[in-house]
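Minimal example, chain plus NAP.
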Amino acid sequence: MSGKVVLVTGASSGIGRAIADLLHARGHSVYGTSRRPEAHTAPWRLVAMDVMDDASVLAAVTMVLAEAGRIDVLVNNAGLVVSGAVEDTSIAEARRSFETNVLGPMRVAKAVLPGMRERRAGLVVNVGSLAGRIGMPFQGIYSATKFAVEGLTEALRQEVAGFGIAVTLVAPGDTATPVVENRVRATAATDPASPYAADFARVIAMYEKDEKAGAPPSAVAGLVAGLVEGSRSGARRVVGPAPQRVLVAARNLVPGPIFRWGMSLYFGLKR
Ligand SMILES: NC(=O)c1ccc[n+]([C@@H]2O[C@H](COP(=O)([O-])OP(=O)(O)OC[C@H]3O[C@@H](n4cnc5c(N)ncnc54)[C@H](OP(=O)(O)O)[C@@H]3O)[C@@H](O)[C@H]2O)c1
């Protein structure tokens, strides 16, 4: 078996698919997950996994370890975008978001880390988002999950460094993937009687336009390949369109009131 053994969650689509394809093409042994592996074909090994389900995660990781003998790299990529004003998002919808985007990566990491600690080597890449640095209107719960991934990643990095395990957060900006079709709208947000209906429709249309015109998923894949192969490193890497990378930097440099004024102006929201 040549190269690294890499487990990529959410590899059936978009960024995860691009990561799995590129790592496979570069000679790594790739295991990519989907909740419905039978619905996809790939030149690498497709594995069933629902990151919301303890037993499913454990079964998938156990299978990979039995077959490959180790997991060198975990890419926690599977994710879900639930849109809607915070007030229009039900607790069940928010819970599903956190189960997928926060407890999902945690679940898979808990299953994979014991082997990495034993071998005193490994790399965990958690896919965050620019929405994990900036609270995005009408995607507040998604932002909350990605802010949580930032904190989880920063803490985990410190905890496992002594075991020889590296942890990196990769934060993409808008990326042209099927995320537009896969976006889930909170039920109450689709009600025309919602007090947020007009703002929600306008802002989501802006997001979708930006996502469709986003960077190709190969940009994220290239960065992850660099991390896997050691030509890149670091605690946190931002990848995506230049204006969005500038926006994230501005968040830390521009006084809060001015940044918030700029955001409201951009989205056409009343202040
Ligand atoms: N596209 C962007 O603009 C963008 C920007 C920043 C960050 N991101 C992040 O990048 C990651 C990938 O997004 P994408 O744009 O490539 O989206 P996508 O095309 O919608 O792909 C999402 C992937 O996640 C998997 N998934 C969803 N729920 C799952 C669950 N419960 N268990 C296991 N797998 C699950 C899906 O697999 P199955 O349906 O086959 O199970 C699919 O492969 C996400 O974490 C997202 O937040 C995306």
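Residues 9-10, 12-16, 34-36, 49-52, 77-80, 100, 127, 129, 172, 174-175, 177-179, 182, 211, 214 surround NAP (CB under 6 Å). The domain at 5-267 is CATH 3.40.50.720 (Rossmann fold).
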